[in-house]
Structures are given as C-alpha cells and as structure tokens.
Design goal:
The protein is α+β, with helices and mostly antiparallel strands. Helix content is about 20%, strand content about 30%. It has a single domain, classed as Nuclear Transport Factor 2, Chain: A. A hairpin with a 6-residue loop joins strand 3 and strand 4. The longest helix is centred in the N-terminal third of the chain and has 11 residues.
Amino acid sequence: MVNTAYAGFEALDRFFAVVGRGLREFADGEHYFDMIAGDALFEFLYYFPGWPKSILGRANLMDAYSGYGKNIVIHRGDWLAVHPARDGRVVTLEYEVHGTIVKTGHRYPTR
C-alpha cells in the first residue's frame, strides 16, 4: 500500500531506494522518511544556491525535498558505500544518483 504522506515525492524514489539499502541494518521503516529520526541532522558538503548547509529534523527535510520533482527526476541510484561510525550513532553513505533536469532535459548525475 502506498503511503499518502509521501505523495509528491515520487521523483526521488530511486534516491530513497539506494539510501534505504544503505540504512536497512541501522534503521527501521519501509520508506526513506520512516527511517529518519524526527531530530536527525543532515549536513551537506556541497553548496547549491538556495539549499541549506544543514537541515535539522525529518519534517524540515521533507519540506526541503517538497517540489523536487518539478526540477529534477531521479532515474537510478547506485554505487552505494556504507560507512558506520564505531559508536553506531552515525552512518555516512556514499552513492551516485542519475536523473534528468526537467526544464532542459539534460542529464543530472551526482554523487
């Protein structure tokens, strides 16, 4: 059954799938957002104009991702590497995603 709480995020399904594979032994939940703690901290090593350097909390992350599909659609996620910290409280994921920029039709590869 599709969780209607996540309707509108379908453009990110392949991203959610690759990250979900990386988190499956560390977090519970069927969907990416279900795996994220309400007070999780996301820190981004890259800079995009208008995108924050960090996001605190699942609700804020969902808000940041809302409307993503109007700009970029992810078609594939791969090259997953999982790096858990020794204390088990932090997991660093490396992955690649490949998609299309909606406005131009250009490829969108990132890692």
